[in-house]
Amino acid sequence: MSIPLLEYKPSSQNQRVAGFEVPNEDTPRLYQLENATSDGEFQNLVWAAYRQIFSEHETLQSYRQTTLETQLKNRSITVRDFVRGLAKSAVFKRLVVETNSNYRVVELTLKRLLGRAPYNKDEEIAWSIKIATQGFDGFVDALVDSEEYRRNFGENIVPYQRRRYKDRPFNLVTPRYGNYWRDKLETERYKWGDIRNFLDLARSMKITPVQSVRVQTDNIQIPDTSQTRSPQNVPVSINTPAGFPLL
Known about the structure:
Radius of gyration: 34 Å
Number of strands: 0
Strand content: under 5%
Shape: elongated
Largest sheet: none
Helix content: 40-55%
């Protein structure tokens, strides 16, 4: 029996507040399957899904899921199922899941599937428990089948970052170097706060003083290295076939 999702209180983020801004270049473009009437429009929708789920700087030709693309083009699956398949693919698991902690995986997956960041730490903990009990595939199903996903994207809209105002677009982040690993490295490298930490570090360093040696220059004898003529039977050139005479 799986553990039910823990309750958490949503925070007031931008996507939860009605907006009155004038549309501009930051307004996300909606890609809908109903509007993909030509092959070019369909390819634009497919690559929009790749950019959103795999992140734009991680989209390579080898990452394409041709089977899912064919099913979507034949309308045998919806965009929601296409997104589900991309999130469950071996590519996504290799790029995101296998290289991060559960908290980081929750953060990235929420940004890419629901178009928003986690509300707070309580939500990260709740979804991390979902991953621990039902696995990552069960976590993806819970997000894609959620009421929040259906309300915002329905069956045939590619997920997008909702109401961007800063960190845009925030799904284009490097999965392998998030705040979790950065802070972990900095914590292990430095000891912040107490000045005695730095004093102890300075005292622990072994310093070897430089020993100066006095040199007397009065009786130094410089050998005679001058040479008036070349030794006998020594070629002038090292290239013997050049035909230089021997002195």
